[in-house]
Amino acid sequence: MLCRLLILDDHLMLNQGLERLLNEQPDLQVLGQFGAGSELLAWLTQAGPAPADILLLDLHLPPPDGLTLLPQLRQQWPSLQVLVFSTDATPELMGRLAAAGASGFVSKAANADQLLLAIRAIYAGETAFPAYAAPAPNTKQVPRLSPREKEIVGLVRLGLTTSQIADKLSISELTVSTHRRNVMHKLELHNVAALVRFAHEKGL
């Protein structure tokens, strides 16, 4: 079964070169390439809930940038795995990307074989971060949160009130408060400001 790919990078020549490389592989198929996040979001909205398997995402984009897009993509299209393909490559960044939901990272300085290996690893259900990056220490708290808890933390980060979150998620205010209290207990946070700071650091 073909691995269906999308490319988001604002360098047209790079996109075209990547598309040719990937489409030459018998197990890979590029469905679309995009130069801006807004173009990708419009395409995904029209395409449905499971439009592709893996997105190759650059971080340096016209607003919204890749790091801003990443949690939104993972929330709205959870089946779409994200492989970040960028020039930045620090351990701190790897932690932020993993916390925001990325499945891997490949530097633009990597060779074609490294990129193909990462794509196939992610398609097989694995992660593909550089060995030196060690994102796990920065992300060990995130897996302790349920999808609903992560969703509520993300909305708290955006500044929504308990009532607004309840309306948005079609749940009661008591349920929102209970989830928030449980999250703060799990993460050993003592106030909402600390929760917002945590959400920002983890890209929730």
Characterise the protein shown here:
Helix content is 51%, strand content 13%. It has 204 residues and is an alpha/beta fold. It has a five-stranded parallel sheet with strand order 2-1-3-4-5, sandwiched between helices. α3 links the parallel β3 and β4 (81-86). The chain folds into two domains: 3-138, Response regulator (Rossmann fold, 3-Layer(aba) Sandwich); 142-202, Arc Repressor Mutant, subunit A (Orthogonal Bundle), CATH 1.10.10.10. It is built from ten helices and five strands; from the N terminus they run βαβαβαβαβαααααα. α7 packs across α9 (173-186) and α8 (162-169) packs across α9 (173-186). The protein is elongated.
Q: Which properties best describe this structure?
A:
alpha/beta, 5-stranded parallel beta sheet, 10 helices, DNA binding, 2 domains, 13% strand, NreC/VraR/RcsB-like_REC, Arc Repressor Mutant, subunit A, elongated, 204 residues, 51% helix, Rossmann fold
